[in-house]
Amino acid sequence: MNYSKTILFSCIGILILVITSCGESEQISPIPEISFLGFSKDTMVQSNFNLDTIQFSIAFTDGDGDLNSLEDNLGAKIIITDLRTNALYDRFLLPNIPSSGQVTGEMFVRLFSTCCVFPDNIPPCSINEKYPSNELALQIVLQDGSGNNSNKIETPPIMLLCK
After folding, report:
1. For the structural domain made of 3-156, what CATH number should be given?
2. Rounded distance, CA 31 to CA 45, Å?
3. How far apart are CA 160 and CA 163, in angstroms?
4. Neighbours of 118 (CB within 10 A)
5. pLDDT value of residue 74
6. What are the angstrom distances between the C-alpha of 26 and each of 1, 19, 21?
């Protein structure tokens, strides 16, 4: 399966608003910088069948504008880690962002729900009266086309309803 097509066409909504700077301006680092702007909501219902979604937004800057995909289609990406387990939650290739230099903008990314994680070897995605919810926090990193990783940001917790 083609990775870039899988990411771009698997019901992942990425909307990018880009402002490309021009003329005289202060220098921005070629290493991307991101900041968390917010969630569309703060609660999701657990699911391993993609039944619930949440959207988050981040602001970004990149001093050399290399957020385009590379020739081998392994270009810029957003990498999201589940901080409950430190496992990969998801990752997305960015669409090409035309640029001739410094780039700033906002990204909106839609994530599908995941399963609750329980102690005591209770299987994930179970329904257990003892554990009605989980707090799910995410770590987000933007990697540019040159492989430079941005700063790591952590989201506020999302309440994951386990019922």
Report:
1. 2.60.40
2. 36
3. 9
4. 16
5. 60
6. 42, 15, 10
Q: What are phi and psi of 7, to 5 degrees?
A: -70, -45
pLDDT at 149: 93
CA distance 64 to 67: 9
Q: Which residue has the tokens 């019901």?
A: 11
This prediction has a pTM of 0.80
Low-confidence ranges of the chain (pLDDT < 70): 1-26, 68-75
Predicted pLDDT of residue 146? 83
What gap in Å lies between CA 55 and CA 109, rounded to an integer?
Answer: 5
127, 133 Cβ separation under 8 angstroms: no
Alpha-carbon distance 133 to 128, whole Å? Answer: 9
70, 94 Cβ separation under 8 angstroms? no
Going along the chain, which residue ranges are E strands? 14-20, 33-39, 43-45, 53-62, 77-82, 87-93, 103-112, 133-136, 138-143, 153-154, 158-161
Distance of CA 22 to the CA centre of its chain: 28
Pairing of strands 158-161, 43-45: parallel
Check residue 72 and give its pLDDT. Answer: 52
pLDDT on residue 103: 87
